């Protein structure tokens, strides 16, 4: 039986190991639908209360903002894990938007709200909206503890700009060694020089030994294998591999390996890189 080619082995391994995301999508859609129903009802109640003078326009605007926000979350399937923060956020939104109507319903008569109620409701709704943005849109801002990466080597692909650059800088400023796995040596060297200047301006001095460059073209399986060989020859252990690089080509192209260009760089190159570096990562654990 003939051995499988790079393309066949990558395709077979990938298709076999990818789990079906149906259950995860279903949970997100169910949770998102419940949230949308609650907040959509809150908008109607807030508008009705406004007609009776029980609510102000800020509450309606905040409710509408939350509805749009969660619509986008469900649309792009980016709903995070359901935790205490999200539960508190939804309870606060419901209490602020539907609270006046619920109180009148329980008492069976119109309620006379104090003069300061619109201000409290407005500020509370604004606070809930900010929390919704931080939890659901912006998300947490992880930081790397100073010195936590000392003696550890990280490989970051495509880290000469963007998110990869910021990731590499955070790891280096935590006393780690970062290998810049980039296609263009000139851009990588320029990014290293800029990173050292930025860190120096922030009062964190980086040494040249912390920032290393090794060429890597993810669209070429030969280049990926050459990169791994260069890592082996360097004698460095590899503790962390961050697959950051990616392209979005405007037209179809085919690599010399017979793979579509975007898929080769974004998927197959990274898959082969992780596969070949897995033994080193396991040894460094």
Describe this protein's structure:
It is a single chain. With 285 residues, the protein is α/β, with parallel strands linked by helices. The protein has 2 domains: 21-138; 153-284, NAD(P)-binding Rossmann-like Domain (Rossmann fold), CATH 3.40.50. 61% of the residues lie in helices and 7% in strands. It has helices at residues 6-17, 22-51, 57-75, 84-107, 117-138, 162-173, 185-201, 221-234, 261-284; strands spanning 153-157, 177-182, 211-215, 240-242. Strands 3-2-1-4 form a 4-stranded parallel β-sheet, sandwiched between helices. Helix 8 runs parallel beside helix 9 (261-284). The radius of gyration is 26 Å and the shape is elongated. It starts with 5 loop residues before the first helix and ends with a helix. The model is unreliable at 6-21 (pLDDT under 50). Keywords: Membrane, Oxidoreductase, Transmembrane, Transmembrane helix. It comes from Polarella glacialis (Dinoflagellate). Belongs to the short-chain dehydrogenases/reductases (SDR) family. GO terms for molecular function: oxidoreductase activity. InterPro entries: NAD(P)-bd_dom_sf, SDR_fam.
Continuous helix count? 9
What would CATH call the architecture of the largest domain? Answer: 3-Layer(aba) Sandwich
Strand order of the largest sheet: 3-2-1-4
Q: How many structurally independent domains?
A: 2
- Which fold name corresponds to the CATH topology of the largest domain? Rossmann fold
Q: Round the Cα radius of gyration to an integer and report it.
A: 26 Å
| Sheet with most strands | 4 strands, parallel
CATH class of the largest domain: Alpha Beta
What level of helicity do the residues show?
55-70%
Low-confidence stretches: 6-21
CATH superfamily of the largest domain: NAD(P)-binding Rossmann-like Domain
Q: Report the end-to-end length measured between terminal Cα atoms.
A: 36 Å
| Class computed from helices, strands and strand pairing | alpha/beta
> Approximately how much beta-strand content do the residues carry?
5-15%
The geometry reads as elongated
SSE succession:
HHHHHEHEHEHEH
Overall pLDDT, averaged?
A: 76
Total beta-strand segments = 4
């Amino acid at each position: 039986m003939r051995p499988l080619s790079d393309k066949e082995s990558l395709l077979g391994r990938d298709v076999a190991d990818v789990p079906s995301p149906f259950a995860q999508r279903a949970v997100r859609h169910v949770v998102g639908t419940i949230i949308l129903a609650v907040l959509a009802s809150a908008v109607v109640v807030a508008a009705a209360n406004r007609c009776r003078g029980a609510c102000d326009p800020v509450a309606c605007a905040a409710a509408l903002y939350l509805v749009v926000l969660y619509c986008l979350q469900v649309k792009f399937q980016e709903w995070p894990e359901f935790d205490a923060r999200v539960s508190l956020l939804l309870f606060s939104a419901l209490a602020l938007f539907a609270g006046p109507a619920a109180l009148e319903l329980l008492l069976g008569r119109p309620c006379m709200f104090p003069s300061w109620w619109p201000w409290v409701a407005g500020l509370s709704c604004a606070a809930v909206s900010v929390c919704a943005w931080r939890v659901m849109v912006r998300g947490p801002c992880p930081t790397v503890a100073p010195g936590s990466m000392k003696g550890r080597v990280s490989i970051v692909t495509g880290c000469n700009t963007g998110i990869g650059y910021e990731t590499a800088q955070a790891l280096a400023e935590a006393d780690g060694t970062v290998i810049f796995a980039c296609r263009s040596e000139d851009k990588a060297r320029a990014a290293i020089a800029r990173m050292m200047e930025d860190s120096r301006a922030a009062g964190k001095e980086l040494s040249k030994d912390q920032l290393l460059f090794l060429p890597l073209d993810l669209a070429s399986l030969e280049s990926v294998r050459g990169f791994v060989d260069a890592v082996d020859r360097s004698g460095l252990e590899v503790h962390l591999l961050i697959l950051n690089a990616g392209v979005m080509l405007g037209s179809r192209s085919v690599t010399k390996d017979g793979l579509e260009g975007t898929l080769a760089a974004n998927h197959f190159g990274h898959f082969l890189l992780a596969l070949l570096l897995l033994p080193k990562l396991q040894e460094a654990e």
